[in-house]
Specification:
Order of helices and strands: HHHHH
Number of strands: 0
Number of helices: 5
Shape: elongated
Structural class: mainly alpha
Strand content: under 5%
Radius of gyration: 13 Å
Oligomer: single chain
Length: 80
């Protein structure tokens, strides 16, 4: 799935929309995925909480709020 390959909700919604799914089908599909913040946190854990990772997440369709929250949270944890 796109969610398992590191895509954010916006990217997934767009991909499913271009595939012809209805808005209701798209929302059902997104609802069964792990929360976007958890998917982003896994990527940050692997790549590090850097500006480059934040740009990567944004490019993969993660919301600005999720990117900011996950990157900041990881930095906060590292600083104690």
């Amino acid at each position: 799935t796109l969610g398992g390959r590191g895509a954010g909700d916006a990217f997934i919604r767009h991909d499913l929309s271009t595939a012809g799914l209805s808005a209701e089908e798209i929302e059902r599909a997104v609802a069964v995925l792990a929360p976007e913040s958890e998917r982003a946190a896994r990527i940050v854990a692997r790549r590090g909480a850097t500006p480059k990772t934040a740009r990567y997440l944004a490019g993969k369709g993660f919301s600005r709020d999720v990117v900011t929250s996950v990157v900041a949270h990881t930095v906060d944890e590292a600083l104690g």
